[in-house]
Amino acid sequence: MLSPGPADPHQTQPLLQTVGLTKRYGDFLANDAVDIEIFPREIHALLGENGAGKSTLVKTIYGLVQPSAGELRWQGAPVKLSGPAEARSLGIGMVFQHFSLFDNLTVAENVALGLDGKEPFKAISERLADVARDYGLPLDPKREVWQLSVGERQRIEIVRALMQNPKFLILDEPTAVLTPQEADQLFVVLERLKAEGRAILYISHKLDEVKRLCDTATILRGGRKVATCNPKSETAASLARMMVGAEIKEVKPPAERRTTVPRLVVNDLTLAPAELHGVRLQNISFELKGGEILGIAGVAGNGQDELFAALSGERLVKEPGTIIIDGLACGNLSITQRRKMGAAFVPEERLGHGTAPRMRLSENALLTGHAASDMVRHGFINAAATLRTVDRTTETFDVRKAKRDPEAASLSGGNLQKFVVGREILRTPAVLIVNQPTWGVDAGAAAIIRQALIDLASAGAAVLVTSQDLDELMEIADRIAVMFHGHLSPALPRAEATREKLGLLMGGASLDQKEAAHAAGA
Amino acid sequence: MQLVLEKRAERSRTIALVSPLIAIGLTLVTMSVLFAVLGKNPLTALGVYFIAPLTDGYSLQEIAVKATPLVMIAIGLSLCYLANAWNIGAEGQFLIGAVAGSWIAVKTQGTEAGHWVLPAMLVAGAAAGALYALIPALCRVKFGASEILTSLMLVYVADLLLDYLVRGPWRDPAGFNFPTTAEFDPVATVPVLIEGGRLHLGSLIALIVVAGAFVLLDRTIKGFEIRVVGVAPRAARFGGFNANQLVLLTFAVSGALAGLSGIIEVAGPVGHLQPGISPGYGFTAIIVAFLGRLNPIGILIAGLFLALTFIGGEQAQITMKIPLDVTKVFQGILLFYVLACDSLILYRFKLIFTSRQVQSGAG
Fold first, then answer.
1. How far is Cα A13 from Cα A26, in angstroms, rounded to an integer?
2. pLDDT value at position A195?
3. Distances (CA, A) of A123 to A101, A129, A157, A162
4. For residue A277, is pLDDT > 70?
């Protein structure tokens, strides 16, 4: 641990500084002459949209990426990092958004694998338990990772970083996978680290969090630094404006919608996991009417993917009556048959699941369009019809691309997501099931997609949206249910669905035992 | 200074076309070294291999004859490989097709059977090849057995079955104890296209197969399914395409094409069933498929090129006393370079001028 001790005489000297840091990939400038100064005893936010260059910048600081130009200074002295090991030896730690943990190993084994030294395993286990207890991050070193919740897995990553006693800790979107209550617990730990004299670089796009927690914010846009400011004296709107560079279009709240007949009914759906350590779906039931948007909240990995697979028909259910689309039992029908019945699906992963990355957009239009359209006649592909779909999607959803029919992988995340959502909406589905509609998508594209979902529901379709972004669900859903450990809670009307209530459900509490709330994070 | 492979943003279409040519170039350089080590003049040897066969009509016809089975088998294999199904046993399916078709030829020998014999033989050959290929395909789909191993092992089963038949029940009584069937009747023989020449009907069938495969892959939903399953299996499942069904289908089609070319070979250029009817067509076709970029037109060109190496190899053995096995060495080196050069489609070489170690990002 760093000794809190007397005030550092070099307090005015930045702990870490980048000077004109530039990273070039071919013709693309991921970072363009970025200057950033981070002081000890500071929580410094790094804000920016996807593709603004946040990841490249922190990877450079952590030694994963070599800068094309510019300089990195550590405590005033220029350094060149050969890799993360050297960054760690300086005192730089990082907690990635995507964990690098082995499911079948224990907590202590995972931590030992990530440490550079030759410390005996037993000593590591003990030190791990000490650090975890000391910071109020309870962890059992002997448990295997697959048994742990996402929040607990993140704790392993944080403890692993803390065991190296870093002076400077980078956290990449740490709250993306946490319930609001778990996030609060994390903030307590971060404040404590700050009080110990450490510096923290906090990457996020959740502006209210940044305003609450951070002392300084650096905002990146298109690879450049646009501003450094004190987030506490800014408004969420002014921060957003700096990130996006323009006013963000407000999503029009749904006009008074009339709900019609139930179009998607799920009756007591129980399904064993297809994969090792998958989630078992347990007695899931809900009813979704035409004209209605049902949101499903929850921390990732609580059965959302499994539910999508069952609803879409990627996995079949034995009992046909468990899933009913427009009055027809279809639990045992294939995804193609469900599409023919008017259902449409948008999976979470747009590259590799929603689209074949190395195939052209027209071919990706055919991927889902072959089921119910004029794209295929007597087994032959109507190339003109597939191109027409690409053109219509491009026009309606403002998909930006370099040529008329490029490979899916060449589109930016937001534009590809607009294509994937648009491709389904243009088929005017009766039921649309969409997972993480705006994950990793820039604000402009997110607004277009959310508006499209609202408009589709207004036109009479039933829309099911699964998202980890509570703000998104509060913005567009009429009712919100929460998934936890394969169970789905009853849906709350939007007016009653507060962040607190949803957060408790996301942590596994049921609403009638609020007093047990403190157990939610454990 | 360090040479690293850097991922390209988009796959390079230029390299996709040029990579086989780079591979051929590298192979020729390697072969020159090999010839020099063998004490032969590399230029002369390459001339005998690749130029001489193109200069007379007989060799040209012979190239087409040798290319026929290569192209037909490779077309089938390309469908498998596109769908991520690894059929390595085309040689066995070729032999089984030859055996099944020959059975009809042997049983009708010397009878009054009419013109239905040859069509029946072709159908039997294709059907047997398809069924034989379905064994490893079913083992993969049902039990998860590696089709690479099972299809390869079945090659030796087919080889020994053929051996047994021509040494035992089907041996020509008037054949001086040679392990061969009697010469097939005219109604059981594939007709030649030019009187007195070697070019036969099979070459025409191969061209039709090429055209058919092109239409299938480029214009039909089935072909699209095959391509998607190979490059993006999860997206294919999302599209509603059944990967297992496509494994069975592509194995059956490639088995049928291998079996068909097997019986065409026996009922055409060879004229009777005997061991050694294939100089490894089923294996060489794997090289043809990849050299041709798993594309029907590319396969046609690659098939002609590999056929050239067979003819050139024979001539080099006769005129320069270079062992025939050097041809196989050549084909092996070629496949090695083709696969190596393919990495340039998605990656490019880059020189890094620092002593710093480069690591890929984890986040």
1. 35
2. 94
3. 20, 10, 18, 15
4. yes
Assess B1–A contact: CB distance below 8 Å, yes or no. no
The answer for residues whose C-beta is within 8 angstroms of residue A318's C-beta and 6 or more apart is A331, A332
Mean pLDDT of chain A: 88
Chain B residue numbers touching A356 (CB-CB < 8 A): 228, 231-232, 235-236
Contacts of A59 in chain B (CB under 8 A): 361, 363
Q: CB–CB of B362 and A410 under 8 A?
A: no
User: Nearest Cβ partner of A66 from B221, B236, B356?
Assistant: B356
- The answer to whether domain A16-91+165-244 and domain A262-513 are alike in fold is yes
Residue in B closest to A99 by C-alpha = B363
pLDDT band at B331; cut points 50, 70, 90: confident
CB contact under 8 A, B356 and A82: yes
Residue A334 in contact with partner chain B when CB distance is under 8 A: yes
The third-level CATH classification (topology) of the domain covering A16-91+165-244 is: Rossmann fold (3.40.50)
Task: Break chain A into its structural domains and give their ranges.
Answer: 16-91+165-244, 262-513
- Residue A195: enclosing H or E segment and its boundaries? helix A180-195
Please name which of A283, A247, A254 lies closest in space to residue A453, comparing C-alpha atoms.
A254
Buried b / exposed e along A203-219 (16+ C-beta atoms within 10 A) = bbbbbebbbebbbbbbb
Helix axes B243-265, B281-291, angle to 10 degrees: 120
Percent of chain A with pLDDT over 70: 94
Residue A179 has pLDDT above 90, yes or no: no
Task: Please list every residue in chain B whose beta carbon sits closer than 8 Å to the beta carbon of residue A315.
Answer: none
Question: CA-CA distance, A63 to A77, in Å (whole number)?
Answer: 16
Q: Tell me which of 3.40.1190.10, 3.40.50.300, 1.10.3720.10, 3.90.1150.10 is the CATH number of domain A262-513.
A: 3.40.50.300
C-alpha to C-alpha distance for B20 and A377, rounded to whole angstroms: 36
Q: Give me the interface pTM, i.e. the ipTM.
A: 0.84
A68 to chain B, any CB pair closer than 8 A? The answer is: no
Q: What is the CATH number of domain B12-349?
A: 1.10.3470
